[in-house]
Design goal:
With about 240 residues, the protein is α/β, with parallel strands linked by helices. Helices cover about 35% and strands about 15% of the residues.
């Protein structure tokens, strides 16, 4: 019904849905543009764009970058999209740290696809062992809302996916997180929040510009023109390309 009220080539839909695969179905059915804002435990492509922009600004040689993903690998949709885009952009080494068996990736398709793209993929359950060799540590919250018994698993998993100063004592890696954090089960120790290695605020700030650029592309306008129409005066130009 929404699609019927909109004009193809001009209008579009931004959809977030709890069911994995729902956005692909919407895009197939709609005549207008469809932008995914996340589909359950599946994908979150706009987050991947801002994550990749953040990493590329800090580490220009992506081919030499070791990215460590930490937390709920199975359900972390931002991991699924960001790992895929980073592989496309040239990252050749990724480690996936699931601190509990329940957080491990059950379906191997993502790892298989990464390996086909030339990525060296490793899995482990210990962050401290890989942190010293990492360039980026990308943490995600535990996705209790997608578990069959959230209260049970909250009791079992709280505190498991936490980056501590001890984990980082021999590491120069940048710390990232797509937000929000679970206030009852935090992922970054408070002692690390003002650490210069923690770039979560910078990461979040790029979300506005990358998503503005995506909207502009859909509307056939430049990102700068979109900023002007919004009355915004950025300190630096918005994203031109990723």
């Amino acid at each position: 019904m929404l699609d019927a009220y909109l004009m193809p080539g001009r209008d579009g839909l931004i959809i977030r849905h709890k069911q994995k695969g729902s956005l692909a179905l919407a895009a197939e059915l709609a005549d207008v543009h469809v932008i995914s804002a996340g589909d359950g435990t599946g994908e979150h492509p706009t987050q991947a764009v801002l994550d990749t922009k953040t990493i590329r600004d800090r580490l220009s040689e992506l081919e030499e970058t070791h990215v460590v993903f930490f937390g709920d690998i199975e359900r972390g949709r931002t991991i699924h999209s960001t790992a895929t885009l980073l592989a496309t952009m040239g990252v050749k080494r990724m480690t996936f740290v699931a601190p509990h068996e329940e957080m491990r990736m059950r379906e191997p398709y993502m790892f298989d696809n990464l390996r086909l793209a030339g990525v060296e993929v490793a899995e482990t359950d210990e962050l401290a062992g890989v942190a010293p060799d990492a360039d980026v540590i990308y943490s995600v919250r535990t996705q209790y809302e997608f578990m069959l018994d959230p209260d049970y698993w909250r009791g079992k998993l709280t505190g498991k996916a936490l980056i501590t100063p001890d984990d980082m004592k021999d590491s120069e890696a940048l710390i990232m997180h797509p937000l929000p954090e679970d206030q009852e089960d935090r992922n970054i120790d408070p002692a690390l929040r003002r650490d210069p290695r923690c770039i979560v605020k910078e990461q979040a700030a790029w979300g506005e510009w990358t998503r503005m650029a995506l909207l502009a592309l859909q509307a056939g306008k430049s990102a700068m023109r979109t900023a002007e129409l919004s009355g915004m005066k950025p300190d630096k130009p918005p994203l031109a390309s990723v």
